[in-house]
């Protein structure tokens, strides 16, 4: 208390001066229209700057959610586009296009996506792996397809309660069934190492018709991916080692060096086929063991 009194005694002239200045400014801005408008404009400008900064901060903080929503939306659109093209091709054969609009929606009803973030990724190994932040507590389990807004990423290999390991396309053990969109010929997607944007589709028949720029999508034959998920585009073709088929060189649509958000594909139809395949495999094993 004594220090406060000493402070007031020491600086009383300055305090009175500041008080009078404040009173003078209030009187000027309150009773003079021009000065009042200047103050109002300046205050609005500062308020606007503050709100703009707050808006930018909120926008930055919500980018992760926005990116996930965009990835999911892109995948849904890719799937719907593929289904529509398939149906149009069928309806052309029937000479009837009135049926097209009513069919994709029920097919998409079983197509669910689980958003996840990439928390670990490697590019420079023969057996690259990706770690995501969702596990079986979120509905993620082994043998589920993983994609992003640009296309195929890989397959879930192992899952724990909160995390999962994905075998990406950029792994020597990756083996995904693909087809040339619009032609129906299918083969298997493999990565041979090296460039992270190039892979190969093997076992394309010699009589297959294709050309550079053709789109490669998942075939749906592997029981891991539904048909129509984008893989990439044909940039070249080569003879297989035995000369009995073609090997297509593919420019991958997914940028694995800039992978942040992915979607795990939970497709009821795929899961049903996979469970049936497992049951058949177990049954055959039991028959051999008897």
Description:
- The chain is α+β, with helices and mostly antiparallel strands.
- It has six helices and twelve strands.
- The chain has helices at residues 2-10, 12-31, 33-61, 63-94, 104-109, 268-289, and strands spanning 111-121, 130-132, 145-148, 151-159, 164-168, 176-180, 186-190, 198-205, 215-218, 230-239, 245-252, 261-267.
- A six-stranded antiparallel beta barrel has the order 1-2-5-4-3-12. A six-stranded antiparallel β-barrel has the order 6-7-8-11-10-9.
- Strand 7 and strand 8 (198-205) form a beta hairpin.
- The relative contact order is 0.12.
- The model is unreliable at 92-109 (pLDDT under 50).
Q: What class would the helix/strand composition place it in? A: alpha+beta
Tally of alpha and pi helices: 6
Number of strands: 12
Percent of residues in beta strands: 25-35%
| Poorly predicted regions | 92-109
Oligomer: single chain
> What's the average pLDDT?
76
Cα gyration radius (Å): 31 Å
Report the principal-axis shape.
elongated
N-to-C SSE string, H for helix and E for strand: HHHHHEEEEEEEEEEEEH
The biggest beta sheet is recorded as:
6 strands, antiparallel, barrel
Helix content: 40-55%
Spatial separation of the terminal alpha carbons = 97 Å
What's the arrangement of strands in the largest beta sheet?
Answer: 1-2-5-4-3-12
């Amino acid at each position: 208390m004594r220090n406060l009194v000493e402070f007031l005694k020491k600086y009383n002239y300055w305090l009175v001066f500041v008080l009078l200045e404040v009173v003078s400014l209030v009187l000027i801005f309150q009773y003079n229209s021009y000065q009042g408008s200047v103050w109002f404009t300046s205050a609005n400008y500062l308020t606007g700057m503050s709100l703009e900064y707050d808006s930018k901060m909120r926008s930055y903080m919500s980018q992760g959610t926005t990116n996930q929503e965009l990835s999911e939306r892109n995948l849904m659109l890719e799937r719907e586009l593929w289904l529509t093209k398939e149906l149009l091709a069928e309806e052309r054969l029937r000479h009837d296009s009135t049926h097209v609009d009513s069919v994709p929606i029920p097919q998409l009803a079983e197509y669910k996506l689980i958003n996840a973030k990439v928390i670990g990724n490697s590019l420079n190994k023969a057996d690259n792996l990706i770690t995501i932040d969702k596990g079986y507590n979120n509905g993620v389990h082994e043998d589920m397809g993983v994609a992003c807004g640009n296309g195929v990423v890989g397959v879930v290999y192992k899952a724990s309660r909160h995390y999962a390991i994905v075998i990406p396309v950029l792994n020597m053990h990756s083996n995904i069934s693909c087809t040339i969109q619009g032609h129906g010929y299918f083969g298997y997607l493999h990565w041979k190492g090296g460039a992270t944007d190039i892979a190969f589709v093997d076992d394309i028949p010699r009589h297959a018709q294709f050309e550079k720029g053709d789109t490669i999508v998942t075939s749906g034959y592997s029981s891991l991916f539904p048909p129509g998920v984008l893989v990439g585009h044909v940039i070249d073709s080569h003879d297989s080692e035995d000369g009995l088929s073609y090997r297509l060189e593919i420019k991958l649509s997914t940028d694995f060096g800039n992978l942040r958000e992915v979607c795990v594909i939970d497709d009821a139809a795929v899961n049903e086929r996979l469970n049936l395949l497992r049951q058949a495999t177990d049954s055959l094993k039991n028959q051999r063991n008897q």
